[in-house]
Amino acid sequence: MKYLMFVAAVLGCLRLSAQEDVPAEWKTPSKSSEAYAAYRRKLTVPPYGLAKVKALIEKIPYQEDDSSPMSNKDYMALSLREKFTYHMIHAEINAQNCDVRPPIQDEEKKIFGQMADGSEESVWSDRQSKFMISNRDSVMALIRESTDRSKRMGANYKMAIVEINGREMIPYIIEVYNRDKKDRDLLTLLMLLMKNNEYKEFMASQSYRKLYGEKADYQSYIDFNKGNEDLIIKRATDYYNTIRK
Q1: What are phi and psi of 102, to 5 degrees?
Q2: Checking DSSP bridges between strand 221-223 and strand 122-123, what pairing results, if any?
Q3: CA atoms within 13 Å, Cβ hemisphere of 147
Q4: Which residue in 7, 245, 212 sits closest to 111, CA to CA?
Q5: Is 94 helix (H, G, I), strand (E, B) or coil?
Q6: Torsion angle of C-alpha atoms 98, 43, 88, 212, degrees rounded to 10
Q7: Nearest to 131 by CA among 98, 93, 82
């Protein structure tokens, strides 16, 4: 049933898309750009009670508003770690977006102002956000534990860090980035933490104006190069040093 509803939603988007003119700037990106786009959107799946949580998710009926929350009875029976797994693999609110956007060119050569969303068709509900915020220390610990195990901080984990304002994780985010320097959204995450906490040195920078100024949009970026990489890490480190106890 869920699959049929998903297909219907996709077909609805396709019908809308077919009625629109293809933008003149539409161009197929390179293979390396497509590969990096897919890499940015990958999730990390927590191992905590995973089989149990997946089985419960399969039982969830869709509501009339297309939301899909787990029943309160089943939800309250989950342990904290199982709830973390649930939230990381299942966002409860449908957020279908039928807008047609041209593919990003040379995605692997850019540092974006916004991170890729691994769950583009759904968002966390108030219940889910409240859980993460009220259990932020545990959420940060589980993200770190799971990231070390899987060797990857997926899009869902990065979004959760923004959700809980996990600025205490800045040194760890830098550590994860430096392991292979492949996931530039970790640099974006550092900038979002500085932006959301209104770090003046960053907000006065040219990078901030380009990524978050009046003319910025979801695809705004700065070039990926060693200079920008080093500057983001230095600014984030300097910011962290102002908040550490």
Answers
A1: -60, 145
A2: unpaired
A3: 23
A4: 212
A5: strand
A6: -60
A7: 82
Q: What is the pTM of this model?
A: 0.88
The total number of residues shown for the chain amounts to 245
CB 41 within 8 Å of CB 118 = yes
Containing 93, the helix (H) or strand (E) segment is: strand 93-94
The model's pLDDT over 26-74, given as tens digits with 9 standing for 90+, comes to 789 899 999 999 999 999 999 999 999 999 999 998 777 778 999 999 9
Give every CB contact of residue 16 below 8 A, 6+ residues apart in sequence.
98
Residue 167 DSSP class: G
pLDDT digits 0-9 by tens, 144-156: 999 999 999 999 9
What is the H or E stretch that residue 173 is in? helix 170-180
What one-character-per-residue DSSP string does 131-163 give? HHHHTHHHHHHHHHHHHHHHT---HHHHHHHHH
